[in-house]
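User: Round two. Same drill as before: sequence, then structure, for each protein.

Assistant: Same drill it is. First protein:
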Amino acid sequence: MAPPGSRDNSARPGRARVAAQRGVAYTSAMLPLLLLLACTPSPPADDTGSTDGGGSDGGGSDGGSDGGGVTATATFDDVVTSLRVAGRTEGFDLDGDGSPDNALWVAGAALDPFLAGVLSGGGRVLVLQLSQVDDLQADTPAELALVSAQDSDGDPSDNASGSEVFQAGAAVDDQGIALVSTTVALSAGSYQAVLLGQSTTIGSVELSTGTPIHIAGTLSATSHSGRLGLGVPAAPLVVALTAAGYADVAKVISGIADLDTDLDGTDDAISAAFDFAAVPCGLEP
């Protein structure tokens, strides 16, 4: 079953999916911190709908184009290639006091190289998927999923090529559509959402989140950027930074926790906001 606020897509009948016209043809054959949706249903035993022969392929078209420059029921897959700590006041209200929270900003200059190394070091990647997009420019609902996927060729140097294909295993169906998603409202390509906290592996770093995940993004046919906000459990982050050779940064991090996620009277997580950039990719099981 899907987490509250999310949509379980595993029971959907098969459906034709028309890929977005990004100008790049993808081959179907083939955060520190963020997100693999906690409940991953098994793929349906029999998907009788039409498919395009494999994973979600970001390019090509099976139907007419609408006024928003993409074909009806388009799917956009984008792999995160840049993650930077946002500024002091550039975050989300994680504790309900009406003010943005981003205690991690004090370590941003030191953490950004660590984040860059995690993203370029190979292993698992974070893919943002927006599916069932009717029109990027009109006010329309769509399905948002954040999927932890494996670099299928093991070569991180081409992850930002715009045509790389990643493997998401049981997190997607045989068309590369995420099995668990959250409905968002697209307006001129922009959206906002709050997702349940979870754990994921980015590169070789596995971390969990201590709060719901806030995301605000803007999508076009060729780019995807925005901001993620969440509470990061302090202890696992200190361990990851120390293991990666950032002991000085870990020492600073250990003293800036500002969120009490288990309500025991002691702050155990650090409010954080990250600016992200992502490029088109392909996604397959």
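Second protein:
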Amino acid sequence: MSSCGYSSSCPEPVNVTINNQVVQIDDAPAMNRVDLFSFGDSADNRTFDLSFFPYEPRSVQVYLNSGAQRYGTDYTVQGQYVILTNALVSGDQILVRYISVDGYVSSQTSTIGMLVSFSPGTGTIDGFLAMDGTTTYLWTNYPTLQSWFNDPTNGAARRNDLLQSHDGSSFVLKALYDTSYDGVNLVTLNKYISLGASSS
């Protein structure tokens, strides 16, 4: 066993504190999350969009019909997506447990078109566009996103789900939201779309 535990490499150090019985990582609340998916919840029954961005992909735990699955063998995690090695069949369910930290997104795993949830009032986030249903964006400012939406193997299939309106020069993203339980209340979270890891 290494000095970092069972891991073959040491993770970056983080500041972990507990305030009023709330665990915080780098001064942001760390929340235990659980998502449940069934057969038919995704187009390919292999790729599932988590409600929140996992803080550490290897900490994501997946249970298929109550049986624990193995990371790297039975599933992987890319950004906000859990990808199963084998597709679900009729009657299957997966339960996904993970930790998210409010406002955390790993730039190394942020891929174009990925949807991420942030607390209300987060405002502008580098590398992301707010899905608020009102802001008009110019395609000339986001050519990579325009290419992604036009690519039949990527965003073209999701155009109707993500775009409220668009023409040759501009677009408006649909207003999309998530909800989260903060231990006391249900909180509405704003959705953002990623412009990709190389964006700033």
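The first strand starts at residue 16 and ends at 19.

User: Perfect.
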